[in-house]
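As a warm-up, study this chain.
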Amino acid sequence: MSYVKPWTSHAAQLEQLEARGLQVSDRGRALEYLRRIGYYRLSGYWFAFRERSGVCCLLEAFASAKAKPREQTLVLETFKLTATFQNAVDLYVFDKQLRLLVLDALERIEVALRVDISHTLGQLDPFAYLKASWFHDEFSQTLDKQSGLTRHHEWLSKHAQLIGRSKEEFVTHNKTKYGLPLAIWVACEVWDFGTMSTLYGGMRELEQDAIAAKYGLRNGRVFATWLRSLNYLRNVCAHHSRLWNRNIVDQPKLPTAAEMPWVVPFEQNAHARARCYLLLCMVRHLLQVINPTSSLPQRMRTHLKTFPDLNHLGLNLVGMGVGANWDTQW
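Now compare it with the structure written out below.
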């Protein structure tokens, strides 16, 4: 399919938005935002301001005489009557600050987990990450049908790339003095969140459980899903993508309410489990273990309370998965 949309000037973009009903009170400022942030990035925020229309889907009825038509929501190009360009900018700024707070928290979590993993495996063998025997069979023995490699082999390839392109002084020093491979407590310092979470997911249950227990989870496989979800969260924030109402594709498993009472509001709420607030609560939980005196939970609570006043558009913190009385937990 050929791409047919033409290049459009910023002025023409603004005129199109106005023609579709988006109110613009300061055209000069609006044009500057389009120049500096971009139409496409901002469109992720004003998308929520567009009109919706319920339409009946008759395809199932045609396919089967027993099927009943169902209603689907169609997003229109026109905006709700009270929607403004500034509303989109305010939501964008809120989301930007949210991502910065999340990155601050994830940096602390990533560093602590590197120590947990490297210390646990290092006690078994300084080079445990190289040896399949220290990992479960699905990770270290099962071959991928396409590549013919195990997930451990794939991980080692990624790890070798990180070591090979690193310019860090400590890597050069250890290569010069001791040669390769690097001991795990040195090598772990080049891991990114994804590399770290993948290795944790391949560890044996005994070692997984030992690390998970530090954070109040009995099941290390549940904790592995936490790390995958937090890696997804980290990537969203690091690439400056929209977060506040994003559908979380890689959703974490929940521990029991007996282990963590704060999970109760999420257990029977599919919407809340698919939004970022659940991940923010996981971040809060981990920080309470890693650094109980951290001010970040209070800063996050304060920031969430600055969510733009968009009630006239039917938008609020519920779009993030936030429930009633949420602030008492922070």
